[in-house]
């Protein structure tokens, strides 16, 4: 017969499952505690039973010595099997259940004994202490074997010591009592072990559910993998406990938030200070893809509650994508502007060609100056009021599109926006959607006009877009921001009702809001407030002084 393959051999050892290991360990601990407690109980019990036996023997001896007739008979009669001392001692022995009651004289001669042939002989143990007037308790070996003994002096009526009384309790009876008590002790110990086993099983089942019946090695591997994953991914991860305190920060989260390991155990407000980032991490602001600003970084935060009452927040750095976003939006704006100028440019070229063919050269020069001057004026007006190049390019392109559709797009005189936007891409999306919506609203109406106003209040940006269209009924001032809501039929290639809902969602992600009301003179006025949309201004006295003077001169 071939030997069993090594992989199939029965291996004895600790089981792999956490449930089984914990159950066995707890059973071993409970059994050890029971054995230890039983041993600690039995050791003093034996000593206590010995002490009780010796005290009982001493009490019987004292009772025997207290009988006056025994001392009198010891003095006036010789030792005899039928003598009064032997008879009195035997009555006391039988009545007390003692093993023996020995009465002796000053020489140590027995006057009584359980075995008659020992009467008249010398005692086998030293009686000197009792004859000297001291009570003695001991466990010793005598002619009748091992016994618990009590010895006391025997005194006559005048108090003189005339002998001694020795009483023995058979030691085997003490042992029998101890052995008799052991089954009860083991019964209690077994009950305690059963209760401990039940408790161990319940605890093990709970641990099994919480650990999903994994082995300790699996849990250790998962922890190692978690550490490697958390510190290796390019997203920040912040874990909070049920009390709202930070309990985990990976390396990327520390970099993005500008904090270290000292933040663990503290609340977001304590670690980061009050602000939108702390509000988002603490769950006071809810939603998905929430925008928060930490220093010069724009972060996108998502927070997910956990089963234990805590939460895990992920952080994505949007700052690194801003350059790509700017380039992409600039390209889109350029494409829109080129598309809008295509027909107009062709018409102007045809007009210029006609003037040249008619040899109206002066009129051709005036026409070219007028066309170039219109475009220069529009670009200069926008860039003077709006410092962010991306947003300025968008409005220049939208002005061209509006002119093609017969709509006047105006930049309000109150518009002033420095080049300090934290999230220019988001503001471009908001402005583009509102302007497009306004252009659609005024299309085909007389004296169509759209006005855009961008101004700052501290670090907040306030955007207003007014149009001369039919306006929005009061009962739809809220529903107009609902995704899918529109007064127009959806196109064949897509759906409507997306732009305004996107505007409100982007504003709310940054802690702001969007609303609509009736404009003065008719039409609708949309207002978007973006708090903390600007970075802190950097003081540049040498550069800002001339600009302020220029503004004052223009105002005059």
Automatic annotation (TrEMBL):
Subcellular location: Cell membrane
Reactions this protein catalyses: ATP + protein L-histidine = ADP + protein N-phospho-L-histidine
Biological classification of the source: Bacteria, Bacillati, Actinomycetota, Actinomycetes, Kitasatosporales
Organism of provenance: Streptomyces phaeoluteigriseus
Region of interest: Disordered: 534-556
GO function term, MF aspect, one: kinase activity
Segment forming the signal sequence: none
Low complexity composition-biased segments: 534-547
Protein name from the UniProt record: histidine kinase
TM regions (residue ranges): 20-45, 185-203
Domain of life: Bacteria
Keyword Zinc: no
Pfam families: HATPase_c, PAS, sCache_3_2, SPOB_a
InterPro entries for this protein: HATPase_C_sf, HATPase_dom, His_kinase_dom, PAS, PAS-like_dom_sf, PAS_fold, sCache_3, Sensor-like_sf
Keywords: ATP-binding, Cell membrane, Kinase, Membrane, Nucleotide-binding, Phosphoprotein, Transferase, Transmembrane, Transmembrane helix, Two-component regulatory system
Presence of the UniProt keyword Disulfide bond in the record: no
EC number annotated for this UniProt entry: 2.7.13.3
Domain Histidine kinase: 423-534
CDD domains: HATPase_DpiB-CitA-like (cd16915)
Bilayer topology: Multi-pass membrane protein
Gene3D superfamilies recorded: 1.10.287.130, Histidine kinase-like ATPase, C-terminal domain (3.30.565.10), PAS domain (3.30.450.20)
